[in-house]
Every structure is written in structure tokens, then in C-alpha cells.
Amino acid sequence: MAKTQTLVRCQSCGYISPKWMGKCPDCGEWNTMLEEVAREAKKSPSAKGVSVKSREIGSIESIGQSRMATKIKEFDRVLGGGIVQGSLMLLGGVPGIGKSTLLLQVANNVAAQAPGKVLIVSAEESCEQIKLRADRLGRVSPNQLILAETDFDRIEAEIEEVMPSLIIIDSIQTVYCPDITSAPGSISQVREVSARLLRIAKSLKISTFIVGHVTKDGSIAGPKIMEHIVDTVLYFEGDTHRNYRIIRAVKNRFGSTNEVGIFEMTAAGLAEVDNPSALFLAERPTGSPGSVVTVASEGNRQLLVEIQALTTRSYTNVPRRLSTGLDFNRFSLVLAVLEKRMGMELGAMDVFANVTGGIRLSEPATDLAVALAVASSQREKVIPEDVVAFGEVGLTGEVRFVSLMDDRIKEAARLGFTRVIMPGQKARKSAPNEGVELIAVKTIDEALNILK
After folding, report:
1. Do the beta carbons of residue 121 and residue 168 sit within 8 Å?
2. 450 to each of 134, 308, 360, 386, 434, how far by Cα in Å?
């Protein structure tokens, strides 16, 4: 079989070269020359007299979305209610986070109810390895088929012969098209395989999951156009040394991106967590300075998590600043405000902050809790156990309004907290739940009064 002709094109200016170069000779950009398949241009149907006319949007008939439930409530929530027929979904995460385990559970549940079969294409593991995992998880269904193959031409032929109701490709970085001379996992290979999978999913109405690896900077390996091609992009987050996992939708054409699914890794696979706040606070120490609870908003769900801080005298010329689970830039901002506006002497001290449970927080609403935890450790004052704090801290020391305040208060009250420190600009006079005292503050100085 003759090899398909390829060319090297600059992704910045479009310059075409017969061979790869590190620097584009036209625009001068580095590392933008990528290999592509050379395709002959085809005449448009309109050139033969066939025209396509626009349609009034009101005259277009709406169609419903046919969904398959995975029987995993947290996963169905993130997808928007289930798997849409003919959709192409991308699941990314670091190695060992549980992507293959979760999709094996999904395959088993779908195979038990869908009329067709489920095809698992393993390009990294053998069929025997997958069978061992399935036996360990107790996830064996007769309607599951396993194909250990990396050649996409053979994979496509098997798909057309089996015509499954669900396809799982694990992973996109190890599948290759033989027509392209570049190595598997290269940008050209990933983009071409993704485009062919899209054509299969849409033309044959087969739902498809693609597993993608994550690079060091946290993005899915491969070109960004890969995320534009698919219908849904899911990120599997969590610390591989802890049991908790979070699935977050960053793109979903068939549902909301404000939903997250929370799981716990067990010996029997990934188990849904119905009350994650209780788990995150289960091992919270009592009577220790530097510990405070905040309410973080993850999509439409409110989570109570503990933030810990530790300040200690530094023995180096440059004091250390280390945060785990927090945005480092916002952490540095809070420390600067405490030192400039509150007069805390932190310049000669090492300051550490940590979000327990392995969860990562990025929203500004956690600023106030971080400030209270650092001040509590520095002053050796214990924050009462029944206190929850949330709010954004500005550069002048003001505490700013955050979204979903009522929902945060309700979640704190549900878990037994009786006092809530919150922004005072738009605070309500009465709490939505009886027995909850709202402490409205306008500045960080007012919030620190609880430590006196």
C-alpha cells in the first residue's frame, strides 16, 4: 500500500515546506512546522449548480437527544444526564488517576442495558490485562468486546463490522494512522485519528470515549484543535496518593459545564461520594491554630474543606512560600495584604498552606479563609470549630462579595456549623437556616477580630 503524501505546514502563517524545519522561514516562529496529510482539493458541489440555502431558525424542527445512562450518578451528572448517541467525548487525566477503571465500569453498565455491544480498544494494555482488572472489579459483561490494536485502519474495520453502541479508545496517544509517517502520539497522528473518530461517531451514530494523557502543565497532550473537535471534554483530577477523584467538564455541547462528579478510589473501583464535605472534614484536628473551614463552589455543588496554614521562622535568606491545592498567585496576594494592611511581620518567616483531602481550589472565595488560617498560625490563636469563612480579599484589605452565598451558608448549616464569616456588602440580616449566625465583615481587619 502506497504511503500518503505528507507536507510540513507552519501552524502560524501557513507556509508549506517539503521537510521539517525548526524555524519557519516565512514568519520566523519556532517549533510551528508540523506534518500534515497532503490532500487534493475537491470542487465544491455549488460549482456544479447545486446550491445550499439558508433556513429561518424558527422553521427548523427541534430534535430530542437520545441518551444512555451509565448507572453512575456522579458521572451522568457531569455528562448532563447520560451519554448522547453519536457524541465524541474526551477524558483526560494523569497516569494512574483511574481513567481506565472508570471507563471499564461505564462499559459494563452500558453493555448490560444497551442493545448493542461495547467495544474497548486498548492500545496500551493486552486483552489479558484488561480481563484481570475486570475480574478484580467484578465488571464482566458478555456484551463487552476487547480489541488490543494500535493501527487505526484495523480498528476502523472492526468498528464497521461489530457496529457497537459505545466505543472506548484507550488511549489516543498510542493509536496511529499508517498513512502518516510521524510517530504515534505526535500532533499529526493525534489530530488525524481524532478527525476520523469524529466521522465515525457522527456518521454511524456511535458514542465514543477517547482517553487522553495530560502533560506537565496540566493540558491534554496533543493539539488544542483536539479539544475543539470533540463534543465533551472531561478532566479527571485528584492526587494519586489519595483516594478522592473529581471529574470536571470544561466543555459540553449537550449539558452544563458547572457540574462536577466526586469519587473515591476503592478496591472495587471508583465509588460515588454522596457527602464529600463530611469526608473532607472527617480528620480535622481540634484546638489547633492555623486551621479553618471554608465553603468552595465546585460547579453547582458546595464543598466544605479545611485549609491549614503554618508560619515558622525562616533560616534562609529567601523565606519559603509553599501552597498545596491553592492558586499560588492568590496565596502570595493574601500574604502581601496581611503584611501591608494588617502589619503582620511575615517577611522573615516561612509560610505554608495546604488544602486537606487532595482537592484543588482556584476561586477567589477562599482568600478570606487563607488569611484567617495564616493569621491564626502566626498569632497562635485557635479559630473556633463552629466557624466557616469565605470571601474574596482585595489589595486594600477589603472583603468582596462572592457568588452563591446563600448556597454556601445552607451547606455550612447542614453540617452543623453555627457561625459564618462572610462579605458584608450584600449580606442578609437573617440566615436561611435557623441557628446560623452571619458575621458580615467589610475588611479583613474585622474578620481577624475573631482571633482576639
Report:
1. yes
2. 53, 17, 26, 12, 21
